[in-house]
Amino acid sequence: MMNVLIVESNPDLGRVWKRHLERQGAEVTLVTGQEDAILALYGAEFEIIVMDLVLETGSALAVADFASYRRPEARVIFVTNTTFFSDGSIFAHSPNACAYVQSGTPPEDLAAMVEHYAAGR
Length: 121
Known about the structure:
121 residues; alpha/beta; Rossmann fold; five-stranded parallel β-sheet; 22% strand; globular; phosphoprotein; Sig_transdc_resp-reg_receiver; CheY-like_superfamily
């Protein structure tokens, strides 16, 4: 079973992603900000982190940096509704980044990406 951490400030969107991943058999932890994400990373191992690039509380890059130290095997799928890093530079800033997608990506497509990157570890 794959363990997935979702870090998303919009709880409704996070729940939609969580339900799709759970239907695929994933164990999913949903948090809304940096502090809870760090606590989750202390407590459990995750294959994949699905994280909004722009968090309401805290920094997604700080979470990704901590994850690369604490859980170096975890890959990060960054999700955003902005044009930040649309040039692909997120991969230079976060060595554990494996994908960068828009928030409007269909949940089933995001779930397929999670499964793909978890299998490729």
